Amino acid sequence: MNSGGHLSIFMSGIRLEKIVKTFPGMKRPALNDINFTVQSGEFIVLLGPSGCGKTTLLKMVNRLYEPTSGDILIDGESIFNGMDVTELRRRIGYVIQQIGLFPHMTVAQNIAVVPHLLKWPEGKTNERVDRLLDMVALPPDEYRERYPAQMSGGQQQRVGVARALAGDPGVILMDEPFGAIDAITRTDLQDALLRLQRRLRKTILFVTHDVDEALRLADKIVVLHEGRLVQFDTPLKILTEPKNDFVTELVGADDVVRQLGLVRVEKVMAPLSAHVPTKNLIHRDKSLRAALSELVKSKADYLTVSDGSQRPLGFITFDNIRDAIG
Amino acid sequence: MRLGEMRYIVNNPDVMLRLLWQHIVLAIGALLIAAAVSIPLGYFIHGKQKLTTAVLGVLGMLYTIPSLVLMILLLPLFGLNAKTVIVALVIYCQIILVRNVIAGLDAVNPSIIEAAKGMGMTKAQRFIRVQLPLIMPVLIAGMRLAAVVATAIATIGAMFGAGGLGTLLFNGISQGRFDKIIAGSLSVALLAGSLNWSLQYAEKRLDKIARIRAMNPAVSQKTPSHLGMRIE
């Protein structure tokens, strides 16, 4: 990013230390001793059944909830020490399941909310709005002046994502953003988000109870169960080395065929070596299942992984797939 | 109606205009002050269940005091002039407006407020930029009813030195001048009617915009049940 890109550099790594949250009148803490560190630019999914505390945890990062004890550091600085809470929130993107667009504002006005709060000059804000609409595949000329009610749920959430990106925050919080959207549109939005993330490299915390969504999107998954962090690992590790029975059951770690459908090719591909000629292209976002099917069909001994252009990124063989899942 | 009884209006346009203007100042002035009081009051008590019940209870009780009595009670505080009348009108309008402000705020989808909060709007910014525009249609609906009530009750103002169209009515009664009574009552009715219609127009316009904006409604367009009209 050019405009305001400096924020992304300064603010992105997140560290949670000994987070405990006890709601008044509850015997068991909603969150108990949560510790993990997120590197700048990582896509982290908080996964768990409802009531596991994942949304509570997410909302602590922009201080919609305060922890009972513990600390959250963004780039080494505690968010509870002297940082103004509205200032903090303006520097963190926020997307919610109910979308929450302002119905009395146009799409452009919705996206411009945080730039206005940050007192950006008008020209810069307008430019930003158009660029974000392009990024989320809503042509600005067509959508800028629309009201949220004149759009589908999927389009509205695209605006929701654009709005969260508007102030060019380093950190983005997403609370089941695609939970209320039909399955086909949800897949589109997930793909769009992956493409965006590849370009922008934001630090994303993403809450979901949908295991497939978590495995598709995450660089790393935080599995929460009854207020405790059960496992913090890459999707592949979670599938192949689940920490306990709960995780095994949750992600269906026994079902190898299902796993093949959930892991992206780019996660297991071998790096490109100079002597491998390009053949049988497969997109990096395709599942291992698609790769396997392609390998069997084409009778080739490997596939070349690409990013949609003709540029090769790596290659993938039967052995890669077997080693990853087996 | 025979033309003879309309002769006062026809023959005294200057008096009619002066009294009409006084009446408008009384009613609209009171309405604007009432709105300026009820919006912050409603915002403050909104969401505090006990306080809301208590405040609405008191305002409802005040509304049941006959207007003549209320103005007499206010007389020692504000004197024999328009101030007494305007204060009385402001008090009567409160129950209508505060109820609508609260109903409007209750109907705003909580997820919209959460989004506003999460994006870093302060409380004041949330109110001015999000809540107030969203409750506008409901608020205008309340203003419409309040305008009619204020116009009707302002008639009594003539007895307290505030002038207005009531002057014609009271003079007409004491002088046995039927043409003055007709002129007074007809013009009060017309004024109330036109205020009602113009606010209804504003309400409809806002409502139409609100409907375009709110297919998945941020504010349900259900207006609160109003108090019955007050006839004095």
Describe the fold and architecture.
The complex is a heterodimer of chains A (about 325) and B (about 230). By secondary structure, chain A is α/β, with parallel strands linked by helices. Chain A has helices at about 5-10, 55-60, 85-90, 105-110, 115, 120-135, 140-145, 155-165, 185-200, 210-215, 235-240, 245-250, 255-260, 290-300, 320-325, and strands at about 15-20, 30-40, 45, 70-75, 75-80, 90-95, 170-175, 205-210, 220-225, 230-235, 270, 280-285, 300-305, 310-315. Chain A has a six-stranded mixed beta sheet, sandwiched between helices. Chain A has a four-stranded antiparallel beta sheet with strand order 2-1-4-5, with helices on one face. In chain A, strands 11-14-13-12 form a four-stranded mixed beta sheet. In chain A, helix 6 (about 120-135) crosses helix 8 and helix 13 (about 255-260) packs across helix 14 (about 290-300). The longest helix of chain A has 18 residues, at about 185-200. By secondary structure, chain B is mostly helical. Chain B is built from nine helices and no strands. Chain B has helices at about 5-10, 15-45, 50-65, 65-80, 80-105, 110-120, 125-155, 165-175, 180-215. The interface between A and B is medium-sized, with 26 and 26 residues.
